[in-house]
Amino acid sequence: MRTVEFKNIVLFFTLFLLFFAASKADASAWKLAKNFWTEEDEKLYEHFVESLCDSKYSNLNKFIRDPKANPLYGEDDKTFDLKPDCADLPYLVRAYVAYKLRLPFSFTSAIRGKGGDQRYSKENRPTAFKNQSQYKSAQSLFYNVLLINSGYFRIPADSDLSDHYPVKITKKSIVPGTIYYDPNGHVALVGKVAENGRIRMIDAHPDKTISKPWFGTKFNKGSKDNGGGFKRWRPIRALSDDQIVTTKNHNIYDYSNTDQYKKSYAVKGRKNLNYHEYVRESLSDNRKSDPLKEFAFMMQELYEDIVYRSVAVELAVKRGISKMPHPGALPYNIYGTDGIWEEYSTPSRDARLKVAFQEFYYNTQVIISNIAKTNYEQARKVAWAMVAQYDDLSSHYAIYYQNSLGKQVLLSFDEVLKRLFALSFDPYHSVELRWGARGEELQSARDDETKLRFYNLEQRLRNNTERVYGRSTPLSFGPDAPPEVNIRNWLVAFVKGEALPVEPAVQQVVVQRANSAPIEPAVVSLPAKQGAEPGFIPMQAPEPVVAPVQLELPGSELPETKTLVASFEKQESWISAIEELARAIRDVNNYSRE
To answer: What are the φ and ψ backbone dihedral angles of 315, each rounded to 5 degrees?
Structure first.
């Protein structure tokens, strides 16, 4: 009798274990086809990210639901709801590809650090992990990934527990899907790498839109302590008991906890490079660079950033935030908060835009100054050609916004530059103030006395280009005057001999300018473009237009130089000057960045 009872007990527990195992398998978000990622799988991941980068979409849901755009498209994509912000995007994209390929996916589900807000705290470390076996469906896993914040990337570079590891800057490591962590609280994916070393990034925002900016100084350099910089997903392997084993740093071929964290950099014979120069040089194919094409490309890059900002401003206006009464106070920190301010304000986005304009200013100065080292006259002529190109592209790279009366207002590239530090980041302000309107253009606004008072009080904050987190940003935070960013003015001054060449520096120097009266922009009311919604703004920037060098340059002749620099040899006639200019331009086309 006891033997029969014992057999029954054994049978019961056996059936229970089988049932439990089956239930656990059914509960998994997806059944694994393989227990690790192969090199081929990583290539498919890269292809998916690059396809997202190449697509026309600024919304992840729309991308995955388009069978022509999404290389991993399936009928199940119609049911998914993927709305990441910046920190969620890398995790959500990796999880989505893991689901499609039926591969293991593991992520940090809890962290601990020192100093309050996890996004800016010190010594963050993972304390808990989850993987696909612990969720009943892919969508439930996707929803949980949305709880991640940028602090989950803020892990010291030498940690073996982090989901990602810092890499050495090489073409093999900086590929679509590689992550960039900006320690100021922003995260982005590498979308694609051009042959000239430029990196197109993909990032998401609190308003759930996706943008595709180019990598530059607007992405802050990290440190070894906060793990900033380029990272890749740590290789993992799933075991039979649904546990995940991770690969240690010393076993990863492209791991480096030093390459990105130096004071200065050298590569390909060039020394004393700053971090962003080092990244580009390391990834470029060493082809000769055309200064005018570089200049046009930088303008296109800035235009795209302006367009992305316009989308964010338009979204806040459509949500009616500008019609709400102003709360009468700003958040403790305007760059990192929550609620309406976090979702619809643009202080971080605006700061990155200002830094990008500073980079444009600095890099153009360096291009001209490098040419001037061997041929000052040629540098003057190239600078003058850049002025002509700037004027041509400025009207080409224009945007529209719809004012409070429903009329369209045109802003050229140059107009945005001139009012850059007047653009309001405050979501409670009218669209006119969001675009720095003055004079007649401002007459259509409906801001009350409180909003106008806060606009004036926020000027110091607008002058600031540095994003800071974890501490107070009062109205007094920021310089009296903004830095100089008007490259057209500098180019004209250089041609006239009123500005000296600059010496490239490892750390870029920000020059503060004196207070000056604001330039009164003109308002232009235009009819809506045919087939476009009012306030239409193109999401895709046109291909960079490299204006041909004008032989009839503005003013017919180069302005005379001042005594600040050595006088140049005068041409016997304007005809000979034109002939020399043509020869100079041919020489410029062969000019090397080295």
So the answer is: -65, -40
Query: From CA 49, how far away is CA 29, in angstroms rounded?
Result: 22
Asked whether residue 338 falls in the same domain as residue 279, the answer is no
Which residues span the domain enclosing 156?
27-283
DSSP state of 129: E
What's the chain's length in residues?
Answer: 594
pLDDT band at 505 (very low <50, low <70, confident <90, very high): low
Same domain for 279 and 304 = no
* Residue whose C-alpha is closest to residue 265's, from 256, 276, 278, 280: 278
Q: Which residues 6+ apart lie within 8 Å of 453 measured at CB?
A: none
Label the pairing between strands 236-238 and 179-182: unpaired
Overall number of domains in the chain: 2
pLDDT at 471: 86
152: its two tokens: 């989950």
Residue where a domain stops, chosen among 283, 314, 336? 283
Cβ 412 vs Cβ 395: under 8 Å: yes
Is residue 92 within 8 Å of residue 82, measured between CB atoms?
yes
- Answer yes or no: do 163 and 310 share one domain: no
Is residue 15 one of the residues assigned to a domain? no
328/260 same-domain check = no
Token pair for residue 115? 């100093």
Across-strand partners of 512?
Answer: 483
Q: Nearest to residue 27, comparing CAs of 150, 131, 118, 181?
A: 131
Q: Are residues 375 and 511 in the same domain?
A: yes
Q: What is the mean pLDDT of residues 245-260?
A: 97
DSSP 180-220: EEETTTEEEEEEEE-TTS-EEEEEE-TTS-EE-PBPSTTS-
What region, left, alpha or beta, does residue 406 occupy, with left being phi > 0 and alpha being psi -120 to 50 degrees? left
Amino acid at 188: A
Whether residues 264 and 318 fall in one domain: no
Residue 56 lies in a domain: yes
Q: What is the pLDDT of residues 89-109, one digit of tens each?
A: 999 999 999 999 999 999 999
Tokens read off for 108: 């940090």
Q: What angle do CA 318, 540, 143 make, to 5 degrees?
A: 60
- Residue whose token pair is 């922009």: 521
Task: Quick: pLDDT tens for 568-586.
Answer: 333 333 334 434 444 443 4
Question: Residue 397, class by beta-carbon neighbours within 10 Å (0-12 exposed, 13-18 middle, 19+ buried)?
Answer: buried
Tell me the β-bridge partners of 229. Answer: 181
- Both tokens assigned to 177: 């899907």
Cα separation of 237 and 222, whole Å? 29
Which pair of tokens denotes residue 90? 């890398």
Helix H or strand E encompassing 110: strand 106-114
Q: How many CA atoms lie within 13 A of 113 on its CB side?
A: 22
Say whether both 348 and 276 belong to one domain: no
